[in-house]
Write a structure and sequence with these properties.
This is 4-carboxymuconolactone decarboxylase. It holds the Pfam family CMD. InterPro entries: 4CMD/NDH-1_regulator (IPR052512), AhpD-like (IPR029032), CMD-like (IPR003779), Decarb_PcaC (IPR012788). It is a single chain. The chain contains 7 helices and no strands. By secondary structure, the protein is an all-alpha fold. Helix 1 crosses helix 2, helix 1 crosses helix 3 and helix 4 runs parallel beside helix 6.
């Protein structure tokens, strides 16, 4: 697959997982500094990895969130907590993932993620009202 095809395929998955609003904001904020990086993310993260057949998007979301909890990457974690719903992940599954992460990532990481998840839930609920 050439870079253009990989980019297009990656952009389709990126939009499906993260949503058009998020992707559009990213594209609108392209600068000379981040343009090549955004292209790289779209081609490789979304075009090569998220398109692989070995795992569905639901499972990839759960794995991604677990790794971001362990790495303490709050901004990226918040984005993927929101995006998980686009992949069919439920609030109960997220709760169980966070509970499970307390064993392997530590209580402070799980506690911080519980608060972050509640913030995401509250923001999503406010949008529905």
């Amino acid at each position: 697959m050439d870079d253009k095809s990989r980019y297009d395929q990656g952009m389709n998955v990126r939009r499906k997982v993260l949503g058009d609003a998020h992707v559009n904001r990213s594209l609108e904020s392209l600068q000379p500094l981040n343009g090549e990086f955004q292209d790289f993310i779209t081609r490789y993260a979304w075009g090569d990895i998220w398109t692989r057949e070995g795992l569905n998007h639901h499972t990839r979301s759960m794995i991604t969130i677990a790794m971001l909890i362990a790495l303490n990457r709050e901004a990226e974690l918040k984005m993927h907590l929101r995006a998980a719903f686009n992949n069919g992940v439920t609030r109960d599954e997220l709760k169980e993932l966070i509970m499970h992460s307390a064993l392997y990532c530590g209580l402070p990481a799980a506690n911080a993620t519980m608060h972050l998840a509640q913030q995401v839930f509250d923001e999503l609920d406010a949008q529905v009202r």
